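Task: encode each sequence below as structure tokens.

Item 1
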Amino acid sequence: MKKLVKNNVYWLGKVDWGVKGFHGDEFATHRGSSYNSYLIQEEKTVLVDTVSASFAKEFVENLSNEVELNKIDCILVLHGEGDHSGALPELMKHIPDTPIYCSANAVKSLKGQYHQDWNFNVVKNGDKLDIGNGKELMFIEMAMLHWPDSLAAFMTGDNILFSNDAFGQHYATGKLFNDQVDQCELMQEAMKYYANILAPFSMLVKRKIAELTALNLPIEMIVTSHGTGWRENPQQIIDKYDEWANNYQENQITIVYDTMYNGTKELAEAIAEGIELEDQDVLVKVIHLAKHDLSDVIVEVFKSKAVAVGSPTILNDVMNSVAAFAHYTKLMKLKNKKAAAFGCYGWSGEAVKLLNQRMKDAGFDVIGEGCRISWAPDEDAKKSAVEFGRTIAKA
């Protein structure tokens, strides 16, 4: 069912209430998601993106109920990833010669995925497409927000920015706009989306925000490829991206750990006690890594000014969940954050030293040599962990 966005612009996507993972299972989507496609019906009829391949036939059927497929003048593919282009092969069976406007990198992406040589029309930054009634679509290159092929398109007259993956959320809702949904949920999902997908490209985000601002576009509405669009003060999400891209942190310290026989868990709790004794204003969160999804954990790290990472030593190394955490954190390329390591050991005790190095490799400023306790922590060991917590808070 199509929904009115503004004037002659309609949403014609799919809300996926049941999806629980994106990028395979790398990103947990506890609140589902949506695949947002848009139909512009001015003098020219323009389709902006499609939906996931899982809903291709349904999408094409719904589209054909709204417009004769052969009356579609062109298709914009703002980003070639399958959650946006997945229905394209099914659609192009019906209209194989319809022009597709996309970036040069999107041509590579689409050919690589679907092995079809459709009627590609490559556009660059600032190129314009006349859609009639005095309106144009102006293309804005958004490379690495979050793929090399990414584009946005600004529709003059209605002043709508089709932003594709930028400014979106994995958030299933029947509502199209930010003022229609729970604001806490919306901002939680917007931050999670940024922390997991766009944080590695924060320097590029800052540069692109500056370029977008310099264009001085009269943006009245931002419509995204996932979740809700922004019509009430759309500038707010642009400002948030600018803030998040600037080595973001809150007054929070996060402690993450895994444990075998609860010794490292006891250290984590003692370290939390020490932090709170030293600084009553800081928010402390303690997370057992084996019981949480990494895409949720990385949001807490993104918000934190410091993170303490704990693991017992197993097979001369750290536990798998902690190794995965250190690897994922490195991929996120977070800046201006401190880290500390802790853990229990029985025999060889390499985990703390290895964690110090891995967090250093991930770009963190490591605090001291860590808290390394042999066997189960006794009262003296717990006191040492409390003092280590104080040291972290002071740092």
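Item 2
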Amino acid sequence: MRLTTRTNLAMRTLMFCAVNLGRTVRKHEIAEACNASENHLAQVIHLLAQKGFIRTIRGRNGGLALGRPAEAIRVGEVFRTFEAALPFAECFAGAENHCPLVGVCRLRCAMAEALEAFYGRLDRTTLADLVNENEGLERLLKVA
């Protein structure tokens, strides 16, 4: 399994905001700290804001900040937001499924269970779990 770049950037953005809690951060600061393209990051920020994970502030002193407490942001919810558009495998693609094994394959059931276990584990992890008392992450992401 491999996560999309968008999901990876979403988590980096949220961790950056959480480490810099109480401060409005700017897109270019996140891009620099997380080694990301500002254009790609803009798309991720837009979806994060739409879903209420972050809030954006316009104007001269604008930027972004967490939209809810880090304890209320579940990693599984973030992953589902960014990964849901892409089916895990062809057999999960509904009308787009053209696999000739679909009627007899038992792998789909096993993959569905594994995927549910994966998301279940991420649902038990909050953004706060990732950043609280994580001095190494703070050294990397804290804006002076």
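Check on item 2: The beta strands are 54-57, 63-66. The chain has one domain: 5-141.
End of task.
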